[in-house]
Amino acid sequence: MADPRPSSLLILGASGDLASRLLMPGLGMLLAHEPERRVQLIGSGVEDLSPAEWKARVKASFDSEGAKGPAVTATLKATTYIQADVTAKADLERLLEACTDTPAIYFALPPAISEKACRQLAKIDLPPKTSLALEKPFGTDEASAKKLNALLLTIVPESRIHRVDHFLGRSTVLNLLGLRFANRLIEPMLSNRDVESIEIVYDEQLALENRARYYDHAGALVDMIQSHLLQVMAVLVMEAPATLKAEDLRDQKQLALRATHVWGDDPSTSRRARYSAGSVDGRKLPAYADEDGVDPALETETLAELVVEVRNLRWAGVPILLRSGKALASHRREIIVTFKAPSHVPPEFRRLKTADRLRICIAPDEMSLELNVNGPGDPFVIDRATLRADFNAGDLPAYGEVLQGILDGDATLSVRGDAAVEGWRIVAPVLKAWRAGTVPLDEYPAGSDGPRAWPRGATEATPATR
């Protein structure tokens, strides 16, 4: 880790939900964890907030995580809010002049506004080592992602562009890499020689939660699979990097993404659905089509499944299912690796018809290895045993780790420009098929596991993942 250096964190859109609910609590925990760190916090937005109102918001965000300590106190005391139009060159220059240290500009804004602000920043002589941090989505398709990348590179070099993917924190990335490459037993098994299939699942109990303005134009495929789950997959299947430095790690992720294609180049193998009225954990929900702000004619999916293949020597022929959805029965973030059956089992053994599986749960980070063993009772009956282990949970919340990387100039957790383009390239044929109506839009009751007709396979939740 780099030594903390004095920084100016300039949050554009600081009066919005992202800043108050995630960014500033994450900053508070980072400051509490690293009391020697000094950060000048400047918030900006179109709203008119007095100094007292702004400091009260920052304090509430810090307090929500119980963040305390000298760095927290110093940042709260010195923080300022400047009302500004971030799409105006003069206002951006005024904001940058207020930065006393190296600026890190965080765009907590809708993508279209962020792009307009970047076009104005391209006209400004920025302070040395200025960095930019942008939330997904990075463009709306492959062409727009390339165009956005080109714009950003006119402002700062790639090494100082942080495309934020908070889904995979530093501890989770290291846990996955440690499990894969620090174990002689596991690493050789993770290939098409021994693996039957892989599933990467993110099921939420949360529904739309007043996000119709964004979500109804994105859907589960773009919101989660195109970005987050493809990044998880890349870490899981990539070859060992020479080092854990950002350049080596991101090079290997990119090679994995470049080899990734829709299974059989057939987008009809994908599935989509949206929730109807139902109940999740005792909470009644209307049908998605009846949610405030939703246009039913858009046929936005709230559950998506996509099967891909990584066409390289290690993984060719292994189906990888990516699944994400809302308003489902359980909250699950897990990777399921199903191994092939043994080549020969003596006929005297009576076996359960269940494959060996490796389950890796994300947040909380833990793993289990499900094996067939001779259990109690009849020694000729093969029973099921599960070996469990907890991973390092990390010291910071996801956005604390994100901000740590941005302020330290460490791009390890950021999505590189070419990786953002590959994400769009991979899902492009599926989006085209869905827009053409060649893949039906199914329905599932809120609080269920999805459409009843969909195959379940290893995605059935275990008690540990509910």
What's this model, at a glance?
It is built from 12 helices and 18 strands. It is an alpha/beta fold and 466 residues long. The protein starts with 6 loop residues before the first strand and ends in a 21-residue tail after the last strand.
Describe what this molecule looks like in 3D.
The chain has two domains: 7-135, 3-Layer(aba) Sandwich (Rossmann fold), CATH 3.40.50; 170-397 and 415-465, Dihydrodipicolinate Reductase, domain 2 (2-Layer Sandwich), CATH 3.30.360.10. Helix content is 32%, strand content 23%. It is built from twelve helices and 18 strands. Helix 1 (17-33) crosses helix 2 and helix 9 (219-237) packs across helix 12. Mean pLDDT is 93; it is low at 459-466.
Question: Which properties best describe this structure?
Answer:
ten-stranded mixed β-sheet; Dihydrodipicolinate Reductase, domain 2; Rossmann fold; 2 domains; alpha/beta; 12 helices; globular; 32% helix; six-stranded parallel β-sheet; 466 residues
Average pLDDT works out at 93
Encode the helix/strand succession as letters.
Answer: EHEHHEHEHEHEHEHHHEEEEEEEEEEHHE
Helical fraction equals 25-40%
Residue stretches low in confidence (pLDDT < 50, at least 5 long) are 459-466
**Computed CA radius of gyration, to the nearest angstrom:** 23 Å
Task: Please indicate the count of domains.
Answer: 2
Number-wise, the strands total: 18
Could you give me the name of the CATH homologous superfamily of the largest domain?
Dihydrodipicolinate Reductase, domain 2
CATH topology of the largest domain: Dihydrodipicolinate Reductase, domain 2
Task: State the CATH class of the largest domain.
Answer: Alpha Beta
